[in-house]
From TrEMBL:
Native species: Streptacidiphilus pinicola
Regions that span the bilayer: 70-98, 156-175, 216-235, 247-269
Protein known as: CDP-alcohol phosphatidyltransferase family protein
InterPro entries found in the cross-reference section: CDP-OH_P_trans, CDP-OH_PTrfase_TM_dom
GO biological process, one term: phospholipid biosynthetic process
Cellular component terms per the entry's GO annotation: membrane
Highest taxon listed in the record's lineage: Bacteria
A GO term, aspect molecular function: phosphotransferase activity, for other substituted phosphate groups
């Protein structure tokens, strides 16, 4: 996942391969898996267990954490491109590449922490990678729904537009979050702690609590969206057309637009800008 900056960089902690327990003690510091906004549920559920077993074999490999972050970007963008493959295989390939993207998102930070090579550049590239990957996935899904290669009749560009709209919403939501720290730092304040902020209005607090319980907003995230796309692909394979893919595009676009507005209001009316 995201890498935090540290004063040390460029010095390997150990040149020999550590045991899994030794590696996790450094690469998974206390609180990493409990971060409310920084750790994906899939990371906690399974990916951190897998990634740490891979990363410990890379501690003396001729690869840098930032190079792995670039590779993460490639996997994420490739997932969006894979959705252009007609039929169920496109949806399967897209979902698999998102899992690779998620794994690399864990591996780069783990390697950086072990080698003490965390950096501001790494944090920046990590954020850009998330922006690009989720936008590519949703845009690719819109093009898939538009039947780009005319497997089910004429192209229908409305669906491509809705997919692009969903991608724009996903980017704006991330920007709304990231710009909180930009605004605070420019005011001479510290960055927001990785914990829940407190809405100042009771109505906003209730709405936020309801949204958090329903978790519908998570559907526009890369992992969740790829699973929805896969489910739609399976349903379309049975149904024989793109009905479920197009339905999913409408759902994702609606969620993205709604969440863009609600997330903005949540931030403006919360304690994060105070």
């Amino acid at each position: 996942m995201s890498k935090t900056s540290a004063p040390e960089r460029g010095t390997a902690m150990n040149t020999s391969k550590p045991t899994l327990a030794e590696f996790r003690a450094v690469a998974h510091p206390e609180g990493l898996l409990d971060r409310r906004s920084g750790e994906h549920w899939a990371g906690r559920l399974y990916m951190r267990r897998i990634s740490s077993r891979i990363t410990r074999h890379l501690v003396d490999a001729p690869v840098t954490p930032n190079q792995l972050t670039w590779l993460m970007m490639v996997a994420g963008v490739a997932a969006g491109a894979a959705l252009l493959v007609p039929g169920l295989w496109g949806a399967i390939l897209g979902a698999l590449l998102i899992q690779v993207y998620l794994g690399l998102d864990c591996v780069d930070g783990e390697l950086a922490r072990w080698r003490r090579q965390t950096s501001t550049t790494g944090v920046y590239l990590d954020r850009i990678g998330h922006y690009l990957s989720e936008a590519a996935l949703l845009t690719g899904f819109g093009l898939r729904a538009a039947d780009l290669f005319q497997q089910h009749g004429a192209r229908a560009w409305l669906w491509a537009f809705l997919g692009t709209l969903a991608a724009l919403g996903a980017i704006l939501i991330k920007a709304e979050t990231d710009l909180v720290d930009v605004a605070r730092i420019r005011r001479g304040l510290t960055a927001v702690e990785d914990s829940a902020s407190v809405p100042r209005a009771a109505g906003v607090a209730k709405a936020r609590k309801l949204a958090s319980a329903l978790k519908f907003h998570r559907l526009i995230g890369g992992v969740e969206a790829s699973l929805l796309m896969l489910a739609a692909g399976v349903a379309d394979a049975v149904h024989g057309d793109l009905f479920f893919t197009r339905l999913a595009v409408v759902v994702l676009a609606a969620i993205a637009l709604l969440q863009t507005v609600l997330h903005l209001l949540s931030i403006v009316l919360s304690s994060r800008l105070r």
